[in-house]
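Posting this for the archive.
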Amino acid sequence: MNRTSLLLLLLLPLTATADPFPKGDAAAGKKLHDAKCIACHQRLAGGNGSDIYTRIDRKIQTPKALLQRIAACNAQVNAGWFPEEEEHAAAYLNRQYYKFK
């Protein structure tokens, strides 16, 4: 095994943990978000609804909390999302707003 291969093998675990939603499809999540989340968030936060994600006192501080919040909203509005769809929405929100590693 040469040095480059060894270095790549050592870095592999770092890249595997860099994405907190590895099964999430952010593009699919955006579609789900736009269809089911925006109207409620506009009523709650005003504007285009994105202030709910960017406010100074935002409540979501971890990837786990984001998934839990999405699951709660899913149940609250009876969106009917499956867990993988919740992860898609989390991947989108993380890419767009939260930036969790």
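The chain has a mean pLDDT of 88. The chain has six helices and no strands.
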